[in-house]
Design goal:
Largest sheet: 3 strands, antiparallel
Shape: elongated
Number of strands: 3
Strand content: 5-15%
Radius of gyration: 23 Å
Distance between the termini: 47 Å
Structural class: alpha+beta
Helix content: 40-55%
Order of helices and strands: HHHEHEEHH
Strand order of the largest sheet: 1-3-2
């Protein structure tokens, strides 16, 4: 039957395909390859992994996973700096933080009836680059505490798959 089928492999998975083909080369048994419609896998995503690490870090340092998450949002998260009339600042902060756990707003200075607030966006609004930065920060914190983390290749795959939310 000697027909040839060609297909393209996404760069992210090329190494996996080469490893399978190399393993097959030394084996004399025939192989069957099947192609199925791609299904959305229920797998670990960048957000879930970040939360798992926040939990482990929290257990190690005696804090909640939420505290660890918010600390990392403050350290590496995306933010806006806004200047408000001081009388309305508390309401703005409450409204901003009502968007979710990672939506942190903190006053940083007050002068002449105006307050400057730094308002951090929650990770639910992050793009791939922002989520990568957050995951990397949490991974580094985990490593510093001796908590096992994914390999760099596994992390790259996880971050590359992030599409937000």
């Amino acid at each position: 039957m000697g027909s040839t089928i060609e297909f393209t492999v996404v760069r992210l998975y090329r190494q996996d395909v080469f490893e399978v083909l190399n393993a097959m080369q030394g084996d004399k048994k025939p192989y069957t390859i099947s192609i199925d419609r791609q299904k959305r896998k229920r797998s670990l995503n960048a957000n879930n992994y970040m939360w798992q690490l926040c939990q482990k870090i929290g257990e190690k340092i005696g804090a909640t996973k939420e505290t660890v998450y918010r600390k990392n949002i403050r350290e590496v998260g995306s933010f806006e700096t806004v200047e408000l009339i001081s009388a309305g600042a508390a309401r703005f902060i409450r409204s901003w933080e009502a968007n979710g756990l990672g939506w942190v707003a903190e006053p940083i200075s007050e002068r002449g009836g105006y307050m400057t607030v730094i308002a951090y966006y929650g990770s639910s609004s992050y793009d791939t680059a922002e989520m990568s930065r957050l995951v990397e920060a949490v991974v580094e914190e985990a490593k510093a505490l001796g908590i096992e983390t994914m390999t760099p290749l596994e992390l790259d795959r996880l971050k590359a798959a992030w599409k937000g939310g």
